[in-house]
């Protein structure tokens, strides 16, 4: 025997359909964007600064989302 191995984290539990729906609707990104704007965007920022920060955040999250694959 090769010794004990840890089980690792489950990608999803018994709610596979709900998890897939959450993933496919990009809800995580939408929720993160709301929190990002609330906590990271300054009140005195110009519209151009705000738009650039939001677009950079969306691009970053989209790349992460596409790299993640639920079929694994």
Fold topology:
Elements: H1 16-24, H2 27-40, H3 47-67
Helix pairs in contact: 2-3
Written account of the structure:
The model has no long low-confidence stretch (mean pLDDT 81). Helix 2 packs antiparallel against helix 3 (47-67). The protein has helices at residues 16-24, 27-40, 47-67. It has one domain (16-67). It has three helices and no strands. It has 72 residues and is mainly alpha-helical.
The domain count comes to 1
> In terms of structural class, how would the helical and strand content be classed?
mainly alpha
Q: Averaged pLDDT, please?
A: 81
Distance between termini?
Answer: 26 Å
| Helix coverage percent | 55-70%
Basic shape: elongated
User: Major sheet, described briefly?
Assistant: none
Q: What is shown here, in short?
A:
The chain has 72 residues and is mainly α.
Key features of this structure:
single chain; 72 residues; mainly alpha
């Amino acid at each position: 025997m090769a010794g004990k191995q840890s089980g690792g984290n489950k990608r999803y539990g018994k709610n596979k359909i709900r998890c897939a729906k959450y993933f496919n609707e990009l809800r995580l990104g939408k929720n993160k964007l709301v929190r990002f704007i609330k906590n990271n965007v300054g009140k005195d920022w110009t519209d151009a600064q705000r738009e650039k920060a939001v677009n950079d955040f969306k691009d970053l999250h989209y790349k992460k989302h596409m790299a993640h694959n639920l079929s694994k």
